[in-house]
Amino acid sequence: MNKQPLFEARTHGYYTYRIPGIAVTPGGAVLATVEARPGKGGDWDFNDVVMRRSDDGGKSWDDQRLIVDSKRYGEGPASNFCMIPDSELGCTHAVFCHNYERIFYTRTEDDGLSFADPVEITQAVLSYRDEYPWRVIATGPGHAIKTRKSRLIVPLWMSDGSGSEFGANHLGHRPSNVGGIYSDDGGATWKATDVVARDHQNVSYRTSSAGIINPSETLALELSDGRILFNMRSESSPHRRLVSISDDGATGWTSPRFDDDLVETVCMASILRLDQAGSVLFAAPDNLEHDMAWGSKVNCDRKRLSAKLSTDDCATWSVNRVIEEGPSGYSDLAMLPDGTILCLYECGQVTRMADDKYCMLAAFDRTWVEAGVKMEAR
Question: Model-level pTM?
Fold first, then answer.
């Protein structure tokens, strides 16, 4: 296990850095992105997206540079930069949102040295308004996927904006539903998936019925048999991650269920396929405590970021190992060609939870995870 901070709060004119994303390009470069947040670091500040790039597997990094300037698109933040490496086309796709109302597509064909001018693809999600009057919409966050059938899939969440959590001057991010967008032509055109999970949708949980509350930030994973799994954050009372599966990643989603083994702290998580035999890594804060100072009655503490290993396509989780014991939140995962796993994650505190001191890069291998605590012994 090796760690190094890549982004530090109160530097380069920004208040804090949040919402990490990481990808290994077809040419082997490692791209690390975050939202650079001015003001007081809130979701609705005039947030930009910045990136650092490594040519040596994450050992050394170039200087931080701006890749999405929010002012270019008008008032509001640039958010949720989701990358998709594409070895078939030799590029890395990316989508992001602006002001939680517009979605853009871009790509790099030179391993992150430059990005194409973004193209707006919001039209792809307007069809959702036929069944849900969304006014807030956001991609990811974290990396998205390309399937073995060459379909690009990006999860997203949307809200009607009626929540009051950000005050009178901003639309709320709650209540929320989960959907996605997909492309079958290398990012040239995009379509909306069926809605995957809805607020107040009833699902079966153990021996009782539980309602889904505010499903939102979602991870996509291609299973070894080609089906697509969405792993979703929510604020539901079971405090477990939500899971739904589709044969094609667009239609026919199964009724969401709660995964007993994956604790939900109301925080973005990350998921990564390690091989084609069913090995999967999941990373998220692993606790249900309320000891840290925080204004919301919904959230559990964001700490004890942990990696969990499954060897049967997420059906069960066999081992858990803590990456960061202290304050730690959002994360994203990628893997180098030699099997080294990279986890870019928020950690530390400057003043409070979510005022993260660093976005930290951890590098480790599967053996390090396997030496953790067996799940049945926890």
Answer: 0.96
